[in-house]
Write a structure and sequence with these properties.
Elements: E1 5-9, H1 14-24, E2 28-33, E3 44-47, H2 50-58, H3 61-66, E4 73-77, E5 83-88, H4 89-93, E6 100-103, H5 104-115, E7 118-121, E8 125-128, E9 132-135, E10 140-142, E11 145-148, H6 155-160, E12 167-178, E13 187-193, E14 196-202, E15 209-216, H7 227-238, H8 245-249, E16 259-265, E17 272-273, E18 276-278, H9 281-284, H10 293-310, H11 313-339, H12 344-357, H13 363-378
Parallel strand pairs: 1-2, 1-11, 2-7, 4-13, 11-18
Antiparallel strand pairs: 3-6, 4-5, 8-9, 9-10, 12-15, 12-16, 13-14, 14-15, 17-18
Helix pairs in contact: 1-5, 1-10, 2-10, 10-11, 11-13
The structure holds flavin-adenine dinucleotide.
Flavin-adenine dinucleotide binds at residues 9-15, 32-35, 39, 41-43, 45, 104, 124, 149-151, 155, 175, 257, 259, 280-282, 285, 288, 293-294, 297.
């Protein structure tokens, strides 16, 4: 490809990761991010398999590893907050090779700083015409390639492929920050009741805690730009529920980067239209239930960057990525059922398993078997 002026919409994970490769290849790169600053929110995310190879090739694996969450243990609590089972994270997470776990915000900052691309905050694409792009601010500029890296609800995708509909997996997820009065340090706490899951993590006793709240629900109608309405939906789902639901809800108005979205996948039948190409969640969100969204974004950015620079183009990018993406999407669909169990029986069964696992003589093999499909999906591409 001889045209080298690219606009990337979205500075989450996929956007800056692609910018990194294109800046290095001498392309003229602009990133536009709707938020007024880098969004530092989110829970911890996994980087696994092929995505760790990408971090190595970027020269960023060591820096990411330094920011690894270093999680020590996972604890399950009951309605009253009593600890009913604790397991060492090393056993439960079954990490392999160079896999790592990092707070989403830390990874975003690392990628953004390493990319060094010209980034415009507080603006977004409003119109794409034959040669030019109009921004919401009114600015008009010409670009050769436009990359939609603006996440699950990508409005850039909406402009060029309005027919793509989200595949709702039957749940919603919210992530926000609270004061860490849980006394946790590199420990994850999980509380489940039918159709609802609360999880909490803090890097240190003096650090804020990140709370995740997930609830089963049919698709809800709400304005995606109306944060107050999203907080009301979360309150309606968790008010008066178990563990510390009400304490956490009482802090959502003070949370610095409140995140609320559906657990959905993007089943886009094609990833490009004209000079616009989809990357990361915008094109193939596997849902947070898969734990693979960040890895797909990193690998996708690497493959797209390589194909743009070497001239393979969008078709080659899609051909190389499709089988890997489909494996991970299938894995995500299976996982969502386990993430939010529907019945007390299923929760009791899971809790019993967690309580007794540490006494199992072949516990490592049991976990290995459970996690094998995840590792297979994470490595289902050669780069
Ligand atoms: C604040 C936040 C918290 C998250 N927390 C978690 C989590 O805890 N667990 C998990 O599994 N996944 C989480 N995700 C999703 C996860 O980051 C992605 O699945 C994955 O990393 C792929 O990244 P992405 O860059 O494709 O999308 P995202 O990380 O979603 O990044 C998209 C970026 O585009 C920006 N954007 C949106 N619309 C526009 C627009 N019209 N124009 C310009 N910019 C736009 C967003 O502000 C965001 O910065 C979170 C996403 C966000 C934005």
């Amino acid at each position: 490809m001889t045209n080298r002026k690219v606009l990337i919409s979205g500075s989450g994970v996929a956007g800056p990761a692609l910018a990194f490769w294109l800046v290095r290849a001498g392309w003229d790169v602009t990133v536009v991010e709707r938020a007024p600053e880098l969004r530092a929110g989110g829970y911890k995310v996994d980087v696994r398999g092929a995505a760790t190879t990408v971090l190595h090739r970027m020269g960023l694996h060591a820096a990411a590893k330094e920011r690894d969450t270093g999680m020590r243990q996972v604890t399950y609590v009951n309605k009253a907050g009593r600890r009913i089972a604790s397991l060492p994270a090393d056993l439960l997470m079954g990490r392999r090779g160079d896999d790592l776990e990092i707070m989403r915000g830390d990874l975003g900052v690392l990628l953004h700083e390493a990319a060094g691309a010209h980034t415009i905050f507080g603006d977004a694409i409003s119109e794409i015409s034959a040669r030019s792009v109009r921004f919401e601010s009114g600015r008009v500029e010409e670009f050769d390639v436009i990359v939609a890296a603006d996440g699950l609800n990508s409005s850039t995708r909406g402009l060029v492929m309005p027919e793509v509909r989200l595949d709702h997996l039957g749940a919603y997820i919210s992530i926000f920050e609270v004061e860490n009065d849980l006394g946790i340090e590199r420990e994850e706490i999980m509380y489940t009741e039918p159709g609802r899951l609360i999880f909490a993590y803090a890097m240190g006793a003096g650090e804020p805690a990140r709370i995740g709240m997930t609830f089963a629900s049919e698709p809800l109608g709400y304005d995606r730009r109306d944060i107050a309405a999203q907080k009301d939906l979360l309150r309606a789902a968790f008010a008066g529920r178990g563990w510390r639901s009400d304490d956490f809800l009482a802090q959502i108005d003070d949370a610095p980067d409140f995140y609320f979205d559906s657990m959905s996948q993007v089943p886009a039948p094609r990833w490009s239209s004209g000079r616009v190409v989809l990357l990361g969640d915008a094109g193939y969100c596997p849902s947070p239930a898969s734990g693979q969204g960040t890895s797909l974004a990193l690998v996708g950015a690497y493959v797209l960057g390589q194909q743009l620079v070497d001239g393979g183009g969008f078709a080659e990018y899609e051909r190389i990525m499709r089988p890997y993406v489909e494996k991970n999407m299938a894995f995500g669909r299976r996982m969502v059922r386990d993430m939010v169990p529907a019945s007390r029986l299923a929760i009791g069964f899971r809790n019993y398993g967690m309580r007794t696992l540490r006494f199992h003589p072949r516990k490592e093999q049991v976990i290995d078997k459970v996690l094998a499909p995840m590792h297979e999906a994470a490595n289902a591409i050669t780069i």
